[in-house]
């Protein structure tokens, strides 16, 4: 790990730039940072898009991601591209070619990942908000470790055009900030259909999506999220949070979604398989880092990929290729089925209708679900690295609380309550209720 | 080709056909051919990070037409998959194709003795939509213009019992996809490429990749059939492998053991294609007349070779169908096409449209004169009215010219030794008709009457 070389916190977080127009738009006056797996066109100052990978060390995108364009049009200033776990793979912020992201508010602790620089830049007041991406918890986990708010909207709400895919059926662009108000404004700018993104939620479905609009909510706690390994301080804060909800007039009850237990293996099967496929294009022959060659053939591709991908990325590519190989069976298909089952089971626990399912309406169910975001507060480097070196799966287990909402595409926000991240999840498409409730709780805590 | 009765030939084909679309399968790059390298490429075609595919529905439509004309069942549910392998001409590291749920299945193409020289039904397993790859430009450069052009891959059953059947099938297939405007080119232009799987006596099959012409297919299959027989005769077994045709022999490129594992996975970026039965029926209804139907119709009054000639010359076929006359074969093949070829000119329906030919036939003048009009029009294209003044119906050219001949016997007598006096006769006729009839027509008439 190169973290000992890093001189200061700010350098570990971002590459500064300035990209804006003064138009008096909704977001003018606000500065934001952008995770470096979201492409930015030819900005002044030679700002590249690297995904924190040596593979894209010198990569200059010829176009802006849709989110960058929308934010530019609404007057926000892009003030830096921020560090991440290479291609979004990791939950620590340590798997980065330029070096780990340092936690600006808890020295010695990891920042969390993969949107490590996004959470850290918000926590360090380097911006008003940050744009990150969440595949299995990559916004919510670092938000929780850096004590900021992290919002992952419903899958398909924000255009992925220009987001470098890790696992495209899960990748979701989202927003981090200290202020819920800012998140709401930014979300209103980015929540747009984009014809360039084939998985963007079409206009008709956006209109058809019912929104919950009531004061007294029924809030469920899936018992599968109440894990023994959750630390005492997280448990205590979660209890206080529940009491606050009850004080605010909501009903809180325990429910069960048994498929959650299978979510983690399902997630790692799907995500690594998709990653192996998506990262096949990085061969150095058209763009990105390459060794010298006399002849364009497979050998140069193999040499480039062996040399320039980081360790964790290679690990996931190998895992994914194993899943996809003809000799391994049909794990990808099975995981897809488990994922569907999980989605159905989640949906059955909501009062609101899922816009993509033809199910009958359910009653006496929940409007929202809650759980802690992480098992504990940010661990320190030594503890994290020790656990990881004991067994690589230990770092994967970290994602157990965040992965289910990713698999199902639910709008989920992590809010900091006394230094602990708490997740609020809504029905597919019910983003406004999630944001509204988060605002309400934050203002009353 | 001699077949050894002890060794039964068996073959199946995979035919890759470029579709005649304006844009590529998943991007808005043009599909034009022969442009400078890397001028028709978009961000997606190069596999730039953060780009996504967008299905071109024109390609889908042509794929559906192809499915219909090959009598395939269009699937109500089809999807795209990624086929992974590393090669510099493959910018994504995978090809987007249809593996798990292809566009259509279970079709056939009937070859018949009368039109194709052989009676045989070849079954089609499936048709899938997919992307073409880039092309090597030089050792260090790939031309990505071809990358992403839509293809259909048509996979036949191993139904071919001899090379004649293969040849007839490929010929008929080319005529079909060209005639139906599914494909813009031919094998010769690289728009259609064939992989052939061949075995003898049900031993392991060998795949010969990338055959680019009908001649190559025949030569490669002949060679491979004999190679396999020779191997078996010498007690060697045939291994399942892929071979390339180098123009003279087939050479092994890889065997089953080192075959690439393509690691197929559904491409979740692309939507499911749902075609219900009524849509599929509608596509069937919109189809133009099929080649076999055209040949059947034409051969009622034409020899097969002329019928095939018309079928393969769409402009002429259209002309033939638009032109109505009791003696239309004579007029089109002898008079019209005969004149064009006599004058060494390319047939062009705009010079004498069917309606004009009709008018020429209806002119109140002898056949020889009509021929002259046709000839004049081809040589020097302009409206009929400028060549033959129809507004002077009282002028009987025969009589006029005969009168002039009679009155000028002294000039006629000189004609043998002084041919230029013909001009003087023509001049008189022109004067009398006040230029309403073209000099060439008058000239033709004098030549006819004076038997010059």
Unreliable runs of chain A, pLDDT <50, ≥5 residues?
Answer: 1-5
Structure class of chain B: alpha+beta
What is the spatial order of strands in the main beta sheet of chain A? 1-3-2-4-6-5-10-11-9-7-8
**Terminal residue distance of chain A:** 39 Å
Oligomer: heterodimer
What order do the SSEs of chain A take from the amino end to the carboxyl end, as H and E?
A: HEEHEHEHEEHHEHEHHHHEHHHEEH
**Count of helical regions of chain B:** 16
- pLDDT averaged over residues of chain A: 94
Uncertain segments of chain B of ≥5 residues (pLDDT<50)? Answer: none
**Secondary structure tally: strands of chain A:** 11
Q: Total helix count of chain A?
A: 15
Question: Which chains make the largest contact?
Answer: A-B, 51 and 35 residues
Share of helical residues of chain B: 25-40%
Q: Hey, roughly how much beta strand do the residues of chain A contain?
A: 5-15%
For the largest beta-sheet of chain B, the strand count, sense and barrel status come to: 9 strands, mixed
How would you characterize the overall build of this protein?
The complex is a heterodimer of chains A (445) and B (452). Chain A has 445 residues and is α/β, with parallel strands linked by helices. Chain A has a domain at 262-333. Chain A contains 15 helices and 11 strands. In chain A, strands 1-3-2-4-6-5-10-11-9-7-8 form an 11-stranded mixed β-sheet, sandwiched between helices. Chain A is globular, with a radius of gyration of 21 Å. In chain B, 38% of the residues lie in helices and 19% in strands. Chain B has helices at 57-69, 113-116, 163-179, 214-233, 277-285, 291-298, 304-311, 314-322, 328-342, 354-362, 367-379, 384-387, 397-407, 409-414, 421-433, 439-449; strands at residues 9-18, 73-74, 77-78, 81-84, 94-97, 104-111, 120-131, 135-138, 141-143, 150-156, 192-200, 206-211, 241-245, 250-255, 265-266, 273-274. In chain B, the strands form 4 sheets. In chain B, strands 2-6-7-10-1-11-12-13-14 form a 9-stranded mixed β-sheet. Chain B has a 3-stranded antiparallel β-sheet with strand order 5-4-15, with no helix packed on it. Chain B has a two-stranded antiparallel ribbon with strand order 3-16. At the A-B interface, helix 8 and helix 9 of A face strand 15 of B.
């Amino acid at each position: 790990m190169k973290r000992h070389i890093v001189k200061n916190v700010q350098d570990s977080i971002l590459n500064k730039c300035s990209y804006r127009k003064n138009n008096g738009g909704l977001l003018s006056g606000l500065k934001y940072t952008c995770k470096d797996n979201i492409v930015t066109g030819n900005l002044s100052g030679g700002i590249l898009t690297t995904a924190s990978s040596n593979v894209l060390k010198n990569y200059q995108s010829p176009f802006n991601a849709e989110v960058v364009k929308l934010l530019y049009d609404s007057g926000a200033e892009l003030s830096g591209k921020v560090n991440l776990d290479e291609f979004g793979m990791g939950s620590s912020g340590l798997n980065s070619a330029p070096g780990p992201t340092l936690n600006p508010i808890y020295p010695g602790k990891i920042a969390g990942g993969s949107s490590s620089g996004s959470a850290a830049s918000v926590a360090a007041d380097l911006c008003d908000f940050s744009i990150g991406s969440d595949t299995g918890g990559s916004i919510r986990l670092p938000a929780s470790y850096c004590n900021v708010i992290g919002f992952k909207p419903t899958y398909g709400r924000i255009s992925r055009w220009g987001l470098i895919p890790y696992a495209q059926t899960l990748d979701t662009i989202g927003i981090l900030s200290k202020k819920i108000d800012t998140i709401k404004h930014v979300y209103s700018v980015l929540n747009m259909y984009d014809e360039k993104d084939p998985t963007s939620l079409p206009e008709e479905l956006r209109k058809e999506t019912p929104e919950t609009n009531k004061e007294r909510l029924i809030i469920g706690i899936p018992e599968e999220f109440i894990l023994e390994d959750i630390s005492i301080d997280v448990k205590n804060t979660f209890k206080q949070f529940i009491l606050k909800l009850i004080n605010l007039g909501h009903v809180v009850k325990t429910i069960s979604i048994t498929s959650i237990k299978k979510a983690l293996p399902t997630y790692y099967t799907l995500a690594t398989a998709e990653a192996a496929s998506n990262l096949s294009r990085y061969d150095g022959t058209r763009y990105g880092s390459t060794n010298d060659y006399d002849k364009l053939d497979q050998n140069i591709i193999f040499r480039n990929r062996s040399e320039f991908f980081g360790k964790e990325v290679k690990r996931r590519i190998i895992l994914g290729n194993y899943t996809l190989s003809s000799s391994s069976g049909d794990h990808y298909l099975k995981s897809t089925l488990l994922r569907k089952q999980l989605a159905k089971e989640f949906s059955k626990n909501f009062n609101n209708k899922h816009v993509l399912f033809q199910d009958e309406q359910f009653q006496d169910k929940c409007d929202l679900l809650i759980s802690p975001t992480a098992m504990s507060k940010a661990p320190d480097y030594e503890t994290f690295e020790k656990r990881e070196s004991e067994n690589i799966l230990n770092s994967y287990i970290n994602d157990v609380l965040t992965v289910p909402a990713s698999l199902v595409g639910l709008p989920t926000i992590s809010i900091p309550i006394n230094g602990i991240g708490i997740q609020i999840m809504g029905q597919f498409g019910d983003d406004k209720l999630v944001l509204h409730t988060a605002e309400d709780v934050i203002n009353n805590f | 080709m001699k077949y050894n009765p002890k060794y039964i030939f068996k073959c199946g084909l995979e035919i890759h056909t470029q579709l005649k679309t304006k844009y590529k399968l998943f991007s808005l790059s043009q599909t034009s051919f022969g442009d400078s390298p890397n001028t028709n490429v978009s961000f997606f075609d190069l596999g730039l990070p953060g780009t996504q595919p967008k299905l071109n529905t024109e390609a889908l439509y042509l794929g559906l037409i192809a499915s219909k004309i090959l009598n395939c069942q269009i699937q109500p549910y089809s999807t795209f998959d990624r086929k992974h392998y590393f090669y510099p001409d493959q910018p994504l590291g995978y090809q987007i194709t249809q593996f798990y749920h292809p566009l259509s299945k279970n079709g056939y193409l009937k070859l018949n003795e009368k039109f194709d020289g052989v009676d045989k039904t070849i079954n089609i397993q499936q048709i899938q939509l997919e992307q073409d790859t880039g092309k090597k430009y030089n050792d260090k450069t790939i031309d990505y213009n071809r990358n992403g052009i839509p293809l259909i891959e048509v996979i036949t059953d191993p139904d071919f019992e001899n090379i004649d059947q293969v040849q007839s099938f490929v010929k008929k297939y080319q005529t079909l996809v060209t005639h139906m405007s599914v494909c813009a080119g031919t094998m010769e232009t690289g728009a259609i490429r064939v992989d052939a799987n061949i075995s003898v006596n049900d031993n392991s099959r060998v795949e010969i990749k990338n055959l680019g012409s009908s001649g190559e297919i025949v030569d490669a299959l002949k060679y491979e059939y004999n190679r396999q027989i020779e191997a078996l005769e010498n007690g060697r077994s045939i291994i399942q492998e892929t071979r390339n045709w180098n123009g003279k022999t087939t050479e092994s490129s890889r065997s089953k053991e080192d075959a690439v594992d393509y690691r197929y996975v559904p491409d979740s970026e692309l939507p499911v294609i749902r075609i219900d039965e009524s849509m599929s029926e509608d596509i069937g209804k919109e189809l133009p007349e099929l080649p076999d139907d055209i040949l059947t119709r034409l051969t009622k009054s034409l020899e097969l070779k002329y019928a095939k000639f018309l079928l393969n010359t769409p402009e002429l076929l259209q002309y033939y169908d638009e032109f109505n006359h009791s003696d239309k074969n004579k007029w089109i093949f002898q008079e019209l096409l005969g004149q064009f070829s006599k004058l060494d000119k390319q047939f062009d329906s705009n010079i004498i449209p069917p309606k004009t030919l009709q008018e020429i036939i209806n002119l109140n003048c002898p056949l020889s004169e009509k021929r002259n009009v046709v000839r004049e029009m081809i040589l020097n294209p302009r409206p009929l009215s400028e060549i033959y003044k129809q507004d002077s119906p009282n002028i009987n050219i025969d009589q006029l010219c005969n009168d002039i001949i009679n009155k000028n016997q002294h000039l006629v007598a000189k004609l043998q030794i002084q041919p230029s006096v013909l001009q003087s006769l023509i001049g008189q006729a022109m004067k009398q008709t006040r230029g309403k009839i073209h000099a060439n027509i008058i000239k033709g008439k004098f030549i006819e009457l004076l038997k010059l």
